[in-house]
Write a structure and sequence with these properties.
Strand 1 and strand 2 form a beta hairpin. The N and C termini lie far apart (47 Å). Helix 8 runs antiparallel to helix 10. By secondary structure, the protein is mainly alpha-helical. The protein has one domain: Rhopdopsin 7-helix transmembrane proteins, CATH 1.20.1070. The relative contact order is 0.14. A two-stranded antiparallel sheet has the order 1-2. The protein is globular and about 60 Å long. The chain is 67% helix and 6% strand. It is built from ten helices and two strands; from the N terminus they run H-H-H-H-H-H-H-H-H-H-E-E.
Length: 278
C-alpha cells in the first residue's frame, strides 16, 4: 500500500464492526463514527472556553478537535489518506503534551530549588522540546511509512510509558506543588488521564485480537476513539491547570454539568484580583 494512496482501504477488511456486520451503506462503520464525535465536541469545548490569553491551549484543543474530525471521516470511509491525517493529528497532540508536562516539572523544580540549582533540568526540558517538536515529522516519514504495521504501533504506544512517568512525578508532588497544591481536583486529572488511556487500550485490544459477533456488537474500537480523546482532553487540561500561575492567573476546576453522576471537568483561569474567566 502506498503511504499517501488516499483511496486505498485501511485496513482492508475494516475493524470488527465491519468484519462481522459488513460495510454500512452510507458510512463504512457508523457506530465507530458515532464514538468519534465526542472528541470533536471536547476539542471545541476547550477551544471556545479557553480565551485569547491561552493561545497554546487553543492550539492543542484545536488539534484535538481536528483529530476527532479526521477520526469521523476515517471511520466513514476507512481510506488510507484519512487514516494518515488522523494519525498525524494524534501524534502532534501526544508530542506537545509531553513538552508541556516536562516544562511544568521544570518550573516546579525552579520554584522549589531556585534556577541556579535547576540548570540540568532546564537542559532536559530544552532537549525534550527539540526532540518532540521534530518527533511527529520523523515518525510519519521514517516510521509509519514502513511496511511493517508494528512500527506504527511502537512509535506511538511506547511514548505512553514516558507520559505515565511524567504523570506519576506530578501526582507525587501534588501536596507541595507551589501555588496549585490547594486545588486537589486539578491533580485528579492525572488519574482520569491514565484511566482513560487504559480503557482505550482495552477496547482496541479486544476489537483487534478477540473479534467475534459479541465483540462486534460492543464496537470496542469505538472505545479507543472515545477514551483516547478523553485522555488527551484530560492531559491538555492538566497542563493548563499547572501553568495558570505562570500567566498570572488562579486555576480552578469546574464541572459540566455542575451536578450529576457523570461530569466533565474543565480548568478555568481566573484573575487573582477579580473572578473573571480567562
Amino acid at each position: 500500500m502506498a503511504y499517501y494512496d488516499f483511496h486505498s482501504p485501511n485496513p482492508k477488511g475494516g475493524f470488527c464492526e465491519q468484519q462481522m456486520f459488513g460495510r454500512g451503506r452510507v458510512l463504512a462503520e457508523p457506530i465507530n463514527v458515532a464514538f468519534s464525535v465526542p472528541t470533536i465536541i471536547l476539542g471545541l469545548l476547550g477551544l471556545f472556553r479557553s480565551k485569547r490569553t491561552t493561545m497554546a491551549f487553543q492550539f492543542l484543543y484545536g488539534l484535538l478537535a481536528s483529530y476527532g474530525v479526521f477520526a469521523v471521516l476515517y471511520h466513514a470511509s476507512l481510506t488510507n489518506g484519512l487514516y494518515r491525517m488522523q494519525d498525524v493529528a494524534v501524534s502532534l497532540i501526544q508530542s506537545f503534551v509531553i513538552i508541556m508536562l516536562v516544562h511544568a516539572l521544570y518550573l516546579y523544580r525552579v520554584k522549589r530549588r531556585r534556577r541556579q540549582s535547576s540548570r540540568g533540568y532546564r537542559v532536559v526540558a530544552v532537549l525534550m522540546t527539540l526532540i518532540f517538536t521534530a518527533y511527529p515529522a520523523a515518525v510519519h516519514v521514517a516510521g509509519e511509512s514502513s511496511a511493517d504495521p508494528k512500527v506504527a504501533w511502537v512509535v506511538f504506544d511506547v511514548l505512553w510509558i514516558l507520559i505515565a512517568a511524567l504523570l506519576i512525578l506530578i501526582w507525587r508532588r501534588r501536596a507541595v506543588w507551589p501555588g496549585a497544591s490547594t486545588h486537589a481536583e486539578g491533580f485528579r486529572l492525572t488519574v482520569y488521564a491514565i484511566g482513560s488511556a487504559a480503557l482505550a487500550y482495552v477496547g482496541w485490544s479486544a476489537d483487534s485480537f478477540l473479534c467475534c459477533p459479541m465483540v462486534a456488537r460492543l464496537c470496542l474500537h469505538g472505545w479507543w476513539d472515545l477514551f483516547i480523546g478523553l485522555c488527551f482532553y484530560y492531559l491538555i487540561s492538566l497542563a493548563r491547570f499547572l501553568s495558570a500561575h505562570e500567566y498570572g492567573f488562579e486555576p480552578s476546576v469546574e464541572y459540566l454539568p455542575r451536578q450529576g453522576p457523570v461530569r466533565l471537568p474543565f480548568v478555568e483561569w481566573k484573575s487573582r484580583t477579580r473572578p473573571v474567566r480567562a
